[in-house]
Design brief:
Length: 180
């Protein structure tokens, strides 16, 4: 005999697993083991949320132009990934993907990731981008930059506060006489 509590638990478990596989992708195996996630040939323009247990990821033949920073950082079990045949746009937005590809072992990527645009970089492997992305690294803000900005703003605030106190002290000493 099935109770309503058992039915609710079953529905909860089924729903929580179903949400782990992206909507537009297929996942196998169907148990909670490391997954093979196939999102190829889906015309994806953005990367779907991926389960942490993804072991193999196929994203080839989509419309992906870049990967958001940190998108692959939680995929610790990833053994194979295919990112080929996407129109990768090689500007500063490709920085994360370039660094992530460089950090991976040689046999992880099943094919090269190549630029599609701009035309000057067409078919150039993302891993070979160097001087093309130098403007990206120079525009980055570092913690030390924020420290100097904060120190400067704090100094301005202290000077403004001293100016206000000095103005109040001078105003207190000045007496006005009015004759009517």
């Amino acid at each position: 005999m099935v109770t309503w509590q058992g039915l609710l638990i079953f529905l909860f478990l089924e729903t929580s697993y179903a949400s782990s596989c992206p909507d537009l992708c297929t996942c196998s195996p169907s148990d909670h083991q490391p997954l093979k996630v196939d999102c190829s040939f889906r015309e994806l323009e953005t990367l779907p949320p991926l389960p942490k247990s993804t072991q193999e990821l196929n994203l080839q033949h989509n419309k992906l132009e870049s990967i958001p920073a940190g998108a692959f950082d939680n995929l610790q079990m990833l053994n194979v990934i295919n990112l080929s045949s996407n129109p990768w746009h090689c500007d500063c937005g490709i920085w994360y993907l370039k660094n992530w590809v460089e950090d991976q072992p040689g046999d992880l990527l099943s094919s090269d990731v190549k630029c599609f645009t701009p035309p000057s970089l067409h078919q150039k492997p993302v891993s070979e981008l160097t001087k093309e992305l130098t403007s990206c690294s120079s525009s980055r803000k570092y913690c030390i930059d924020f420290l100097f900005i904060d120190a400067f703003l704090l100094l301005l605030m202290v000077l403004w506060f001293c100016f206000l106190i000095g103005s109040l002290m001078i105003a207190k000493r000045i007496k006005f006489k009015m004759k009517i």
